[in-house]
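Progress narrative, Year 2. Work on AbrB family transcriptional regulator from Paenibacillus allorhizoplanae advanced from sequence curation to structure prediction during this period.
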Amino acid sequence: MVMNKIFLHKPIKLFLALITALLGGYLFQLIHIPIPWLLGPMIAVFIGSTVFKERYAWPTPIRNAGLIIVGYTIGLSMTATALHEMAIQLPSMLLMTLLLMLLCVFLAYFISKLSRINFKTALLGSIPGGLTQMVILAEETEGINLTIVTVLQVIRLMMIVISVPLLVFSPIMGNQHSVETLIQSITTTTASWGALTPNIFIFAVVSISCALLGNKVKFPTAFLLGPAFSTAIIQLLGLHGPALPTSIINAAQIMIGIQVGLMLKPAQLNHKVRIISLAIGSSLVLLLGSFGLSFIFMQLHAISKSTALLSLAPGGMDQMGIIAHEINANLSVVVGYQLFRTFFIFFAVPPLLRMLFKYSATKKIIRNSPS
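Result:
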């Protein structure tokens, strides 16, 4: 009898979560909030689940399906041109990425001291690896307050997506364009359903298989990186990967946004005003730091101010790529740098974090041990 009750209730909870997410996404799109179909569902479900406790459910496999779609779109960006650009400028990419990561470490240190949250949480909240990617990485890391990481990442993302276009089209950069039109176009795509077949079936089978295999062998963020790498390899072998229509990308964002919204626990967010203020301040410092690094980048390579800034801006690769396309910046350089930072964060940062946290724990034990 109890099993029947649970069976009947779970689909209703799932349906309520989906309806709430769709309303949130539609509202955010209506008022032109950046990335509406990720942030809208996330915030709407967060509010709904806080007010109506235990009324929502969202199976992890649905979230994983969304990650596979996002991973596929990342893999599409890893074209031969982008990889060639990365190979040519690898030393510069590594230098700029390390300098940006160093700035993030300092910011995380000050955030942890001023807000009294643990350094691991502050660091994952400060690293600019993309909202979806960093939340998933935080979920897989022990001792992390996921709510704080998400709040820090969302505030940073909102500020970057809004501030970078304003900066790019300011007199400093010398570009002329409608900022409002650009912000509204950041999540759009012209891909059609008819162009998907027949290649999409091959990419779908390989992406899903690599995601499941990667998860089985404990590959980091397997449902995201498995499809990304497999898609890139198939493309390099000569098979074209079709771009996904807007509706599919929006659906993937909804799948992920609902899960993140349900993971947010407001009770775990102490000193809310202080944390939000620090998040805004650290985002501004990170943006100014990226702006400063762009001038160093320009001295190393003969590129425009806009290309340098968009390459190093701590935003999403897709958003920065669309802005670069709009102003005729060097798209391969922008995508190459953004892509390099994304994969550096996923492969280099986790082991570095483990080493750092292990060293800190050992040092603490030695300090507290009796002499």
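The chain has one domain: 2-188+198-357. DSSP finds 17 helices and no strands in the chain.
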